[in-house]
Structures are given as structure tokens and as C-alpha cells.
Amino acid sequence: MGFQEREVISVLQQIFATADSRLKVGIGDDAAVVATQSQSIITSDMAVEDVHFKLEWSSPFDIGRKITAANVADILSMGGKCDFLTASVALTGDETLQWIENLARGMKHEADLAGALVVGGDIARGPKIVISMTAVGNSSSPILRSGAKVGDGLYLSSLTGWSAAGFELLTREISINSATAEKALSEFSAPTLDYTIDFSGATAMADVSDSVLVQAEQIADASGVQISIDQKAIVQASEFAELSALADELKVDILQWILAGGEDHALLATGVNLPGIRIGSVIAGSGISGLERKMTPVSWSHF
Ligand SMILES: Nc1ncnc2c1ncn2[C@@H]1O[C@H](COP(=O)(O)OP(=O)(O)OP(=O)(O)O)[C@@H](O)[C@H]1O
Ligand SMILES: Cc1ncc(C[n+]2csc(CCOP(=O)(O)O)c2C)c(N)n1
Ligand SMILES: [Mg+2]
């Protein structure tokens, strides 16, 4: 074992140090003390070694970014802003102090982008690395999955499928020297969140963790509507051609990546005249429609 627990805490204390006035008591006591808004949004998300990441595929910095992004995205998808994060980490003991430091630096990097503070966490030994984060955010008018209305459009904040493309390159051990392949690998290792998109006018929203199809179905079910996907509109998206070239090279169905791939953490929203990419419509009925029959997309499922 290359480190002591108190050394790790001391490194974390330095990395997450802040003079932000929202934080009253940070790392070092039994719990953090923070100034919350009158209505908070709370969510948790975890990443498990060999299920969400592999040590040979991703740097500790990217693993830290990815788990933080996954948590922050669940706050953004409620129409909220993320304020605080905690990070509970099981380590095997085979890591170096530097590996742990870089994991924390990745968390801090993404937390900074989100305007959030890492205020605490926990460390324990485990048979594999497991990272569980909790995020606390705020919104005076949260956007739920249940608000989609007939007549709304279905919008993506950015084109999905990049993370699935990176995952495919890694699992098939295909090495392609191009900016497109680089982008896919980078989006898999740590997705770029769409912090600037204004979906405040959305009637319903979810972040794409499992897949566009799974999340669209969740919105349809919660809202009591049908969501019709417009495959022709997806083809018009600005990044489609670039991703399509990579899909052709790998001989895969690009719609499998875009509609059934997960972990992009793009925002999927319904509403009228929203920004982003319009990929469908909300109509009367239930479930998902509009897919060409030949396509039977399978999305990620843990069990
Ligand atoms: N172990 C658990 N205990 C209590 N509630 C849970 C547990 N696991 C999930 N939930 C709740 O179930 C709901 C759906 O969770 P799920 O993790 O599928 O959604 P999500 O956070 O959008 O997805 P993702 O984890 O892929 O980001 C959420 O309200 C979540 O809080
Ligand atoms: C090593 C490795 N194998 C497979 C995958 C793919 N993967 C894991 S979880 C998930 C969906 C979201 O899960 P959650 O709902 O838990 O956030 C996907 C697409 C990966 N990232 N790493
Ligand atoms: Mg979510």
C-alpha cells in the first residue's frame, strides 16, 4: 500500500480547498456545513471499475471528470444548478497517491465547470474501485419527466453516440488515428456536458445516461404521451456526417450509437422552439414510434 488514509484526506483537502461563501465547513470535520437554497435537488450516481470504467482505458483524471459529470447532468436535467458534491471512494490499496490525487483533480475540474464545490466524502477499502457521488443543486421550478405535452418537439442539446463510438473502439481494440476517433474516445472517457444550452423553457427533461430511446420512453411514460422519433431529422444534425464516417469505418449502424448508446449525458428535452437538435415530436398515445422497423436497438442495462 503506497499511501495512508490521512495522507489522502490531506491531499483532498488541498485540492478541494475553496474560499466560496456557500461553504461554511468543508473537508476535515464529520460532515460539511453548507448554505443551501430553500428548495434543493439531490441525486447520487456511482461508477464501478470494469462496469463504468477500466483502468487501462481511462486516466484517473477522466474517471473523476466522468463520475462528476454523470452526477451534475442529473441536476442539469432537472433544470437545476449544481452547488455541492460529495465523493465516496472505495480503493483497492494498489493505487498510488498520485493516482488518487489525479482522480480528485478530475472531479475538481468538472465541479469547477459546473460551478459546484466538492465538500466531503468517504474512503474505504474494496475489492475494486467504486466511486459514488452525491450532488446537491437548486432550482425554483424543477423540470420533471412528466411535463411533455402533445404538440411539443423532442430536442437533444447535442448529438449523442460519441461515447458509444468510443466504447466500441475500445472494446474492439481498434486504433484509428483521426480527430473523430479521438473525440469519440475522449467523450467515452469523460463526456462534455452542455452547460450553455438554455432548456429553461422545456416541458420535460432527462439526461441521456442509458440511451435516447430509454430516456424518451421514460418521458413518454411519465407524461402519458407518445414520442415519435424523426430519423430523417437526426441525419441533418451538424455532427452527424462526422460520426457517420466513423460508423461506416467500423461497419456499425450509426443509429445504434445515437439512439441506443449511453453515457453522453446530453440533455433530452421536450418543448416548443427549444434550442439544440430537434429529433422528434410529442404526439397522443404511448411509448415510442417513428423508428424504421428494421432497427431493433438494444440499450445498456445493468442486469
Ligand atoms: N438504491 C436506490 N435507493 C433509492 N432510490 C434509488 C436507488 N437507485 C435508484 N433510485 C431512484 O430511482 C430513480 C431512477 O434512478 P436511475 O438511476 O435510473 O435514474 P438516473 O439517475 O437518471 O440514471 P443514471 O444513474 O443512469 O444517471 C431515481 O429517482 C433514483 O433516485
Ligand atoms: C468497462 C465499461 N464497460 C461498459 C461501459 C458502458 N456502460 C456502462 S454503464 C452504462 C450506462 C449508464 O449507466 P448508469 O445508469 O449506471 O449511469 C454504459 C453504456 C463502460 N462505460 N465501461
Ligand atoms: Mg438522469
UniProtKB/TrEMBL annotation:
Keywords linked to the UniProt accession: ATP-binding, Kinase, Magnesium, Metal-binding, Nucleotide-binding, Thiamine biosynthesis, Transferase
Positions with a binding annotation for ATP: G121, D122, R145, S209
EC number assigned by the record: 2.7.4.16
SUPFAM superfamilies, per the entry: PurM C-terminal domain-like, PurM N-terminal domain-like
Any GO MF annotation of the entry: ATP binding
Residues at which Mg(2+) 2 binds: D45, D74
Binding site for Mg(2+) 4: D30, T43, D74
Role: Catalyzes the ATP-dependent phosphorylation of thiamine-monophosphate (TMP) to form thiamine-pyrophosphate (TPP), the active form of vitamin B1.
PANTHER family on file: THIAMINE-MONOPHOSPHATE KINASE
Protein name per the record: Thiamine-monophosphate kinase
Phylogenetic lineage: Bacteria, Bacillati, Actinomycetota, Actinomycetes, Candidatus Nanopelagicales
Gene: thiL
